[in-house]
Design brief:
- This protein is of the alpha/beta class and 270 residues long.
- 43% of the residues lie in helices and 15% in strands.
- Strand 3, helix 5 and strand 4 form a beta-alpha-beta unit.
- The relative contact order is 0.16.
- Belongs to the OMP decarboxylase family. Type 2 subfamily.
- It comes from Psychroflexus salarius.
Amino acid sequence: MNTNILKQQIELKKSMLCVGLDVDLEKIPKHLLDFEDPIFEFNKAIIDATIKFSVAYKPNLAFYEAYGLKGWLALEKTIEYLNKNYPEVFTIADAKRGDIGNTASRYAKAFFDDLGFDAVTVAPYMGKDSVEPFLAFKNKQTIMLGLTSNPGAKDFQLEKLSDGNYLFEKVLERSKSWQNSHQLMYVVGATKPEYFKMIRQLVPEAFLLVPGIGAQGGSLEEVCEYGMNTNFGLLINSSRGIIYKSNSLDFAEAAADEAQRLQLVMKKYL
């Protein structure tokens, strides 16, 4: 999917919401454990309940890989369900892959060709060799870690260089010279809103995937105020704050209520 379809969905739904499907069997409603595939049943219910308010879904691969083959099969069923029933919705494999060369190409093929995701998250620590293989896939988006929301971001990303710039600034600036860089998006944590103006100067047209809203304490209002551009330019992710709003029989309805609450805030800015 190209970003034009994503922009259309944002405009149509008046929403920039991305729902993170981070499924933990210890947290989902107990009655779902009676199903043959409780992960998929949970995802399906969340998707159907929040689809009116969300333009993207982002399964975090760790939450599927942790359950071995059953988890991987649930992931396949989830992305197949999305692509079949809601093909207009943007799908992100939150995999944070960071290898190089042929290995990176195999990862890209797995997520783009085999599973059919629209985008995948990658780590750029090994340089363009770890990112360009993903960018080689037409009409697919590569979401590169830019400035993350975790406390350890200061260990490297916020390291000051001899020229006075932060390391993350150099990474973003360098990434613009890579082949097919127009297919790049960037992860920028909501817990660091003071850096959004700086980031927008570096990548004014790019979409930013913004985690950290909700459970991590990021401000949705500040993200919208400082992160939006003329093309909307934001995908704002909420995972635990939506999918675990309730662990009772009404879990899907509770998730929909929270998704709508966030969407109404975004609507003011759209």
